[in-house]
Design brief:
- The protein is an alpha/beta fold and 242 residues long.
- The chain is built from 8 helices and 9 strands.
- Helix 2 crosses helix 3 (89-97) and helix 6 (192-202) packs across helix 7 (206-216).
Length: 242
């Protein structure tokens, strides 16, 4: 497969998923929207991945490319029927692009926190093989408020109703992070918006606390991220046949 990956920060990339893609011989092109790189034609790509970022989906006046990105996602998923995988901001952008709504979290989630599979998620493909309840890295202050028509919630948490979402047979997204690498927290803590959220939630030593919490879960993160990757490949193959 040849993937197109949209990024909103250099250091907020596909993480451990890059290793799995490389091992399986897949290739990808990356567009750094926050650096002014233009959206390319979708022709020639087999799937679209959209990563996280510190901006909010409603900040179109400040980030002029956000409106175009939403239209791009809508075209990819709804018009072209391309397989899609979104993480964090990419999860929220999918919802808005297809007619859902996103707003500020009532309670921001910052830390390694539990996620619970819904009945739909437990019986579906993307999260198959994951525990009914598991810990994941959360670092967000916005959330999906209403899902688009035709979407299903695959996972939830007490502070965020839609932790994972599917739309039709081809589009999947996660609010949480499993793709963590050893340097993820060190890299993300230097993004101003993330640094502020981290200090507000966990105190001045929040980066150290979060780093230790992630380190304790690295083996579990690796096992679950690889399983999600394999499951996503199955959904993308089915979508391309459909």
């Amino acid at each position: 497969m040849k993937l197109l990956i949209l990024q909103h920060e250099r250091v907020e990339h596909a993480g451990a998923f890059r290793d799995y893609l490389t091992e399986d011989g897949h290739s990808w092109d990356t567009v750094h929207l926050n650096e002014g790189e233009p959206l390319p034609s979708l022709d020639g790509y087999d799937a679209l991945w959209v990563m996280g970022g510190p901006m909010d989906v409603w900040q179109e006046d400040e980030y002029m490319w956000l409106a175009a990105e939403k239209a791009f996602i809508k075209d990819a998923v709804e018009v072209r029927g391309m397989p899609y995988f979104g993480l964090c901001l990419g999860h929220q952008l999918l919802a808005e692009a297809l007619g859902g709504t996103v707003g500020p979290s009532d309670t921001p989630e910052i830390g390694v926190l539990d996620v619970q599979l819904t009945e739909v998620g437990a019986s579906g493909i993307l999260l198959d093989g994951l525990p009914e309840r598991f810990a994941a890295l959360q670092w967000h202050s916005a959330e999906i408020k209403t899902m688009p028509a035709g979407a299903s919630c695959l996972a939830t948490s007490p502070e965020c109703a839609v932790q994972a979402m599917s739309w039709g047979p081809r589009a999947y997204s996660l609010q949480f992070h499993l793709e963590i690498e050893a340097d993820t927290v060190d890299n993300w803590k230097n993004i101003p918006a993330y640094k502020d959220a981290l200090i507000n939630a966990l105190g001045d030593d929040g980066a150290q606390k979060l780093g230790h919490a992630c380190a304790a879960q690295m083996d579990a993160f690796a096992t679950m991220s690889e399983r999600v990757y394999i499951n996503w490949l199955q959904t993308s193959a089915a979508a391309r046949v459909a």
